[in-house]
Amino acid sequence: ELVSCVGWTTADELYSCSDDHQIMKWNPVTSETTRVVKLPDDVYPIDLHWFPRGVGGKKQSQAESFVLTSSDGKFHLISKLGRVEKSVEAHCGAVLAGRWNYEGTALVTVGEDGQVKIWSKSGMLRSTLAQQGTPVYSVSWAPDSDKVLFTSGKQLIIKPLQPNAKVLQWKAHDGLILKTDWNSVNDLILSAGEDCRYKVWDSFGRGLYNSQPHEFPITSLAWALDGELFAVGSFNTLRLCDKTGWSYALEKPNTGSIFTISWSIDGTQLAGACGNGHVIFAHVVEQHWEWKNFEITLIKRRTMKVHNVLNDAVDLLEFRDRVIKASLSYGYLVVSTSLQCYVFSTKNWNTPLIFDLKEGTVSLILQAERHFLLVDGGGLYLYSYEGRLISSPKYPGMRTDILNAQTVSLSNDTLAVKDKADEKVIFIFEALSGKPLGDGKPLTHKTEIVEIALDQKGLTNERKIAFIDKNRDLFITSVKRFGKEQKIVKIGTMVQSLAWNDTSNILCGIQDSRFTVWYYPNTVYVDKDLLPKTLYEKDASEFSKNPQIVSFVGNQVTIRRADGSLVHLHISPYPAILHDYVSTSRWEDGVRLCRFVKDQTLWACLAAMAVANKDMTTAEIAYAAIGEIDKVQYINSIKDLPSKESRMAHMLLFSGSTQEAETLLLQSGLVYQAIQVNINLYNWERALDLAVKHRTHVDTVLAYRQKFLQDFGKKETNQRFLQYAEGVSI
User: Fold this and answer.
1) pLDDT in tens, 607-660
2) E strands along 258-413, which residues?
3) Domain ranges of the chain
4) pTM of the entire predicted model
5) Is 61 helix (H, G, I), strand (E, B) or coil?
6) CB–CB of 113/119 below 8 Å?
7) Which stretches of 143-208 are DSSP H helices?
8) Which CATH superfamily is domain 3-55+62-283 in?
9) Half-sphere exposure of 545 (CA within 13 A, CB side)
10) pLDDT tens, position by position, 147-162
């Protein structure tokens, strides 16, 4: 009889239920199959879902059981050994789907009677969330378990659990929708149905991908746990797709319709419940990693092929267990298998460094130049390339199972993690100690953040973080905060994707219909008006819509288009060379380079770098080259100032840091200069405050004020000025 549902307990054990009333247990490694239990003859199973394995590394007592829904209107809670713990009358007509939430605190069931019901862990009815006239075929929980997504004919509906909250509903397909899935890591929704198409949506119901129509209705789909891949099943069809929708592979197995797809916990294989009574197993192979002149492909589950394109050398890497995740960057290949982690140097493929893993399933590997980060269900672990555990940062409400490359970022000295409980917050840690950075307060933005990235080079106290918020605006800010509130500055709008360069602090992004490179993002803290002059922009229409930046290594940017093809772009090598000169204070070389290249953008970068590093001579040359004469004059006037302190203060003023300039002058005892600065900026109140506080030059302030008012033909209205004017003769 047809197999209706399948579900994995561990990475190597699968349960399946079929219309012949049997529950079978499969082990794909040893190819053993055993019958667990035969259900009563009137129970026809429809859907199966295992109780979640435990959140945040905590094992749960009930984890060894599953819910099975059946055609007689009941759902059954069944233990791993096949004992039916409880059967509950749930719906009139068949119960078409049942799903535990991520914490395992609630169960949602949907049925032919059009009802959506929420049950407690023990099977008591908590509430009826929705009632409608058509059967509900599929249901999914939101990542935070606070909303439920379900089907209603051709519509998709997202309904929050709390009453009176806004319900989101949209027409998703031209035919009946048969299956949905909502991923907790990337927050994307899949739907498929009788119009023979599958679609990808974001959680606001905006369509991101719409497939071509298939020959037959699509009967199943499922996200892999980490949200990078999903699988689609139809009649004699199994398809593997990227999260953006394009298809990696299409298989035509002889299965009949595939009614359910279930991914194993480590995301390396999936199982399908087939209409002809078979259970189909499939493994993901041929993943591909590239870095500089190396191409690495997973050719079998435990074998990688390394191809060096410079000399055509090929190496085969064999592993004891199957490969789960890998990452290639900064001259190292890091591979995690089900039990161990391997670190290969690209200089020598024969002697990897191997260490054992505690938890097992690694869900993410991130690399920086000096160390790498492993993320698993239990926590974040930072290792050196010698295999030594450096630190394991913790933060309140930590959920590591939902982190991905967009929400975690690593550099040589800093680790940044986006909070899940409050999406406006970024936690920032010192990499070497694992402690929160600076005063321990996280970075907080005014709207929800979707993607974060740390720059990779330069000094620790100049570390910058770039992030994109929900409105697709790009911001940059300093990671180190010395008590004072650092400015978060907006540097781009409608940004789809971003990446920092691996060898110099150059940022690239795709904004709206342009590909943009910020050659020196730090300009915003030095001379904001100069920023547009330090950009490189290129029309991005050739990348079609929703392109993603894969990597930015050296002066090559790799972009993946929406159809899955890779496009390589080259940017000018000169800004990186300039960054290199400036980091070693070789200003003459910098100027010589700019004169050789004769490019305004490069001169603008040099000007900003010179001001940032307080090198006035170079700044003067660079500003003159881009024709900013007013700034050249101001820099000249600074050079003629008598004392070092006042020169420093005017440099700060040049960058727009008035507060710091004033503080510096007062500390150096240059009170009159501090007052004069405020007068020049028309900060009258502050000038008077300083004069009164230091009991000096009150008459000067009043005189300037009087002259100012006379020039504009105005009368004095400010009480404080009137009060002091009485007692002082000017």
Assistant:
1) 999 999 988 899 999 999 999 899 999 888 888 888 888 888 888 888 877 888
2) 258-263, 269-274, 279-283, 288-291, 294-300, 303-308, 313-318, 323-329, 332-337, 340-345, 348-356, 362-367, 371-376, 379-384, 389-391, 408-410
3) 3-55+62-283, 587-727
4) 0.90
5) helix
6) no
7) none
8) YVTN repeat-like/Quinoprotein amine dehydrogenase (2.130.10.10)
9) 5
10) 999 999 999 999 999 9
